[in-house]
């Protein structure tokens, strides 16, 4: 597909229709999509960690929800989007490996759950509504974000195809 833009782990992209932004291999990682339906501009981030402090390497803007959302909003507003029109959708944030828990003192909150909670906290603080989500579970996902309509297709072997 010639208008497909692939987002890799810890990365993000902002595009205008007719682009389709995709990402694959979401386990505990979280796909955050932002969309302005009037401008038909959207962004997708494939975040892997809830906070930059958990990274051993220098953080890229797409690695954590805070920097990914800020970067996407800045790029979208630069393309004529208005924050009041922007809506979010979330996918991923699975518990893929129950043994890999971040902080055993707090009961062992997993990375996927923390990614989703942090993204929701930031979006809420910014006043950006989350209009759909497909998060949690114990399986991986792939996402296809169709900018002409704002549709997000979530694919997984376990749950099949969902439109959010």
Would you write up a description of this structure?
- By secondary structure, the protein is of the alpha+beta class.
- It has one domain (4-163): 2-Layer Sandwich (60s Ribosomal Protein L30, Chain: A).
- The chain has two helices and twelve strands, in the order βββββαβββαββββ.
- The protein has helices at 65-78, 111-126, and strands at residues 4-6, 12-16, 20-26, 30-36, 41-47, 87-92, 101-103, 109-110, 130-135, 141-146, 151-156, 160-163.
- The longest helix has 16 residues, at 111-126.
- The model has no long low-confidence stretch (mean pLDDT 90).
Helix-strand sequence: EEEEEHEEEHEEEE
Sheet with most strands: 5 strands, mixed
Number of helices: 2
CATH topology: 60s Ribosomal Protein L30, Chain: A
The proportion of strand residues reads 35-45%
Low-confidence stretches: none
Terminal-residue CA separation: 21 Å
Strand arrangement, largest sheet? 1-3-10-11-12
CATH class (first level) name: Alpha Beta
Structural class: alpha+beta
List the domain count as a whole number. 1
Average per-residue pLDDT, rounded, comes to: 90
**Which bin fits the share of residues in helices?**
10-25%
Number of strands: 12
CATH-derived architecture: 2-Layer Sandwich
> What shape does the CA trace take?
globular
CA-based gyration radius:
15 Å
